[in-house]
Design a protein that fits this description.
Blueprint (H helix, E strand, L loop, with lengths): L3 E4 L6 H8 L14 H12 L4 E8 L2 E9 L16 E7 L10 H14 L6 E4 L6 H9 L3 E7 L4 E8 H9 L1
Parallel strand pairs: 4-5
Antiparallel strand pairs: 1-2, 2-3, 3-4, 5-7, 6-7
Helix pairs in contact: 1-2
Length: about 170
């Protein structure tokens, strides 16, 4: 599977995102009760934030998933671990579908990681998924993440995990 990326347009893409983030299968995104305006507002804030970015992943030119990346020294993990130069935080969301494609989500996380490591400034990817999200823990491990410890964020108990460029390359070429 080949994916491309484009910057998310908070207004143009809000309806699509709203459908994705409020679906019951996106419970770990924590926007289940969000209105369309809530989604527009949240992604307008990200769009205006120099430390947080949102991209749409496209498959054959059509939106297929959401990718966010952030500077953990300034967002999400401030005070919860000691960031290193070259750390970049990441979130991704694949929308619910009635016709799942085997291997799609793994292809998505692999593409997201490759996109992040395409920037030579990014040395290590940091994630903090909900401790209960075992499906994403398995995906993270498949692309090279190593869990470090549980952390308590304001909104959830999370599993702080890291993946270096070398760990990623080893995992996806094995």
């Amino acid at each position: 599977m080949t994916f491309t990326f484009r910057p998310l347009d908070p207004l143009k893409d809000a309806e699509l995102l709203h459908a994705w983030v409020t679906h019951p299968k996106a419970a770990f995104w924590m926007m289940q009760d969000a209105t369309l305006v809530d989604v527009e507002r949240a992604y307008m804030e990200i769009s205006a934030d120099e430390h947080h970015h949102a991209l749409l992943g496209l498959q054959d030119g059509e939106p297929a998933f959401l990718m966010e990346y952030y500077d953990p020294a300034h967002r999400e993990l401030v005070g919860l671990y000691d960031p290193l130069p070259g750390d970049v935080g990441m979130h991704f969301l694949t929308p619910a579908t009635d016709t799942p494609v085997h291997g799609f989500t793994r292809a998505v996380i692999t593409a997201v990681m490759a996109r992040l490591f395409a920037d030579p400034a990014n040395e290590r990817v940091v994630v903090e998924p909900d401790i209960a999200n075992t499906a994403v823990h398995a995906l993270n491990a498949a692309v090279g993440f190593v869990a470090e410890r549980e952390i308590q964020k304001p909104e959830k108990k999370a599993l702080l995990s890291f993946c270096t460029r070398e760990q990623f390359e080893k995992a996806v070429t094995a």
